Amino acid sequence: MMWIFAGLNFIFLASAVGLFFFLVLESYPILKLQGFDFWLGQDWWVGESYGALPMLYGSFFVTALACILVLPLALAVALFTSEFLSSSYRRFVKAILELLAGVPGIIYGLLGVSFLSLWIKNIFGLLDGNTLMTAGCLLSIMILPTVLTLSEDAMHAVPAEYRENALGLGLSKWQAAISVVLPQALPGIVGAVLLGIGRAMGETIAVMLVVGSLDRIPDPWFNIFTSAQTIPSKLGREAAEAIGEGTHWSALMALGLTLFLMVFLITLLGNHFLKRVHTS
Amino acid sequence: MSASTFEKVMLIVLSILTLLISSLLLVILATVFIKGLPALHSGFLTEASKDFGRAGGIFYQMVGTLILMSGAVLVSLPVALGSVIYQTQYLKSKKAKEFCRQSAQMLNATPTILFGLVGYLFFGVYLETGVSWVTGSLILAVMILPTLQISIREAIEALPEQYKDTGMSLGLSQWNQIKTIILPQSYYGIITGVLLGLARAAGETAAIMFAATTFSGVQFPESFSDPIPTLQTHMLVLTQEAANPHAIAQAWGAGGVLLALVFFMTFIAWILRSKLKMESEL
Fold it and tell me: Among 3.10.290.10, 1.10.3720.10, 1.10.10.60, 3.30.420.40, what is the CATH number of B47-281?
């Protein structure tokens, strides 16, 4: 019997390792052909040259935007939920967050297309509401449950004695929360944000629908109200045409490999920070 | 402004923010159902779609989503169960255990579109399942593997040490212990994992959109190599026809059904999880 279980465990490990292995294998042709220029090139013309820079740029920019937008909100609500809410209300908020995290990406995409992109178009007087800003806003809503619930866990895990000591020294509950709980929970908060970033980077459907899908770097570079492209949205748009073979497919797989490595590193780092929360 | 008024103001601001975030779910639910209302008619759940999805019902799309979900869990459950049992009962080396745990976390964090790309290549091209519902189920099976593993592992690790000690003192073999103690006692955890896995598979679009699904032309798969319509793909295609109010209404309607499906399974998983907690506290 042991061998059956070992075999099943092997299937699991093989699918995890195999995923990475296939990405490397399939992106080898284009990387051999173009080398580092693949990541530095700005032009993506199917059949001629494949440059990943606009997609890399879009992915970073959209993720950074989502991160900036989500951080103050998530931290404020996490602090309030952890430090000032009774345990039954706290459980209620956590339950809502778990449901929110389960809302399918395509629903967020539909909400983005029907409302967010129209709002942004009207508020800022744009011709096209599908912009980096739209994708960033939508992503910030999508990663909010992850960032919020994990950073709340980190704050809640700060030992009760710390708070009691702070209150005993004459600090108010608010001061204790800001100057004792928040710094103590910092590693966990960093971990939570990193996992949120990992999530945001890999989100495909919702971003694909609102980012505008234009393979170019905005001009000027900080113009957040132009259409752009992220790695997953590029993959989502073009995988069906290139499917299975050719240089085009290899280029898409190399984009996938790049995405995988970025998410891998960020998640590894995030888990490292979160582990410190549980062991301390 | 004195320090204490400042604190009071801040607390009020924070409580308002918390209230807003908590009502976000309600806002999403209300929007989906209000917007989907024009598409709802008596046959929405039981009729086939007509006029390229702009009219009619979503019966076959629903069936498609259900087939992919159940296929995924059928493949994923034995692998998840077996691998967790191996890791918790047989594997002794700490390093190997840690490696398995890390791999599961990595698989969990991997962007879902990559499962679609690599899965299509491996299953669809190398194993020659093509663009079909079989490919889709296999891709989703790998994707939900960590979800199932986490729940099963939690349940098995929560079992009291005495159970195993008693089993050993009775001279039960490792396999008999698993069969008579571990599997029956972690029953709720396994079901919870299955439900959460089903919910995750139901909500996934990117991994299957080009490897398993089709928008029109097929209603019910007649062989293993047929693609399948799903609620997710249906919504994706209709969403891109933003100018057509009928198409958008149908997309919202399908979204409402999808959301109901996902939440329904999450709720049952919660009920089972609370039962599990109560039992372990006895």
Answer: 1.10.3720.10
